[in-house]
Design goal:
This protein has 395 residues and is an alpha+beta fold. It has one domain: Cytochrome p450, CATH 1.10.630. 48% of the residues lie in helices and 10% in strands. The strands form four sheets. A six-stranded mixed β-sheet has the order 1-2-3-8-5-4, covered by helices on one side. A two-stranded antiparallel sheet has the order 6-7. Strand 6 and strand 7 form a beta hairpin. Belongs to the cytochrome P450 family. One of its GO terms (biological process) is antibiotic biosynthetic process. One of its GO terms (molecular function) is oxidoreductase activity, acting on paired donors, with incorporation or reduction of molecular oxygen. This is Nocardicin N-oxygenase.
Length: 395
Amino acid sequence: MVIDQQPRSYPFEVFQGELPDELLDMVERQPVSRVVLPDGRAAWLVLGFAQVQVVLSDARFVRGVPAEEPVGESAGCPVTGRTRELSMNGADHTSLRRLASRAFTARRIESYRPRVQQIADELVEAMAAAGPGADLISGFVAPLPALVIYEVLGVPASDRGRFDEWIAEINSITAYGNPDSVRAAAELREYLAGRLEVKRAEPGDDLISAWLAEQRTATLTDEEIIGLCLGVLIGGREINSISAGMRALFQHPLQMAMLRDDPSLLPGAVEEILRFTSVSSMFLVQTALADVELGGELIRAGDAVMALPWAANRHGEFFADPGVFDITRAHNPHLTFGHGPHFCLGAALGRLELEIAVGTLLRRFPGLGSGVPIDELPWRQERINCGIREFPLTW
């Protein structure tokens, strides 16, 4: 099915908490269409739920691009360009993922709950001491995931300031092709190589130690462990789900009151926050290895393909009233953490953080409110992440 002969330029516009109307309209009307990337190359944009599932799980689509140089948001990335797990496919990816996932057991993730709760409690008490007007982003949303990841990886407190600087440089809007960003990535990798040696001599209850333990019985190289650490550092510090979740709750005060009065609704609220608010202008380009008919279009072998899970999360065929935020939603098979062989290894940790973050804020501040109208919240725009820049609170 070809509706528009002239390919659109993608991204359509900067996303600021909402999917562009044009994109929402295309999810069901045109789930697969041709677009032009910022570098002028053509690609297929996949938005429909079933079609996104196929691209993310079918072996005929692989991570990477059909060219010597990367395309789109992966172009020139100083970290992900060298993080092997992000671009692996097939048997190699399956083997590495199996080894990596042994450290992400449900028991291990749940064992972090008391420490994550302690970190959240300490942060909200500091906000309470600062008084109304405290910034949710700098006071809670940004430090919580960072501190949790440092705990999970076993990064000592004395080194965390350097990590913050490295990640900020890598995430900056000028990171791609920027010598400072390349330098920061190299320094971060060098530091992680050193941490492997420290943990090899003195193992602890952290992911690095768990992955090093796998080396005794399986082929897991130091470079692969460093790549896994980078994936955890970059993905695990993503802060938008917490701030966007609170934004959505402020926009739906009755549901916020329901959640405050009945904490048993938290797990469902977490899933709905992940489905409804996970909006990004970032995209990952994949390649078709064979001709594939998808959504009424014929994708040729070698074509570049982009699947957008956050758009698929608004597909009315799979979600009742997809544009409605509903923390009591019974059926919520969202694709926010991906699908198939590349499903996010850190999904359970992300859910745990979000549940504790939202629950702690509502419990500690019963009269929590936004210090400015929700539609006036300022946004930041980075190449890897974008989100709310400042979020003043009242209580």
